[in-house]
Design brief:
Length: about 130
């Protein structure tokens, strides 16, 4: 992928995340993708449907959440993303959590994702 392709693919992924369209968001991942949430007890998810289901749980826990990109650095098929997840939880109020994802693209879709964040900064526990 060219550097501009990295930025466009990641921006599209973030836009779909923020729109809440889980079907379109899921299409950003390969059918056999691997995702690991390294700072959430190293939870791993295998396959597009598992990633989409995890994101659906997160939407229920954090209604109205959104992500804002801070930086995107790409080299070859690997991309590092730094972003902020933010919103207002109905019970605990506003929150802002910095996170990082290391993405690997295959055929223009995410085939591997490692997410790093401090779950204690979220207003509710992450889904298991």
């Amino acid at each position: 992928m060219a550097e501009n392709d990295h930025l466009a693919a990641v921006q599209h992924w973030i836009d779909l995340h923020n729109e809440g369209d889980l079907t379109a968001f899921g299409r950003c991942y390969t059918e056999d993708c691997e995702a690991a949430f390294m700072s959430a007890g190293s939870e791993s998810y295998h396959g597009r449907e598992a990633v989409r289901a995890w994101e659906a749980q997160l939407q229920k826990l954090l209604p109205g959440k959104a992500a804002r990109l801070l930086s995107v650095i790409g080299e070859g098929e690997r991309v590092s993303v730094q972003a902020v997840l933010h919103g207002t939880h109905p019970e605990t109020g506003p929150y802002e959590v910095h996170w990082c994802s290391i993405l690997t693209f295959t055929g223009g879709m995410i085939s591997h994702e490692h997410v790093y964040l401090d779950p204690s900064q979220l207003p509710v526990p992450l889904p298991a």
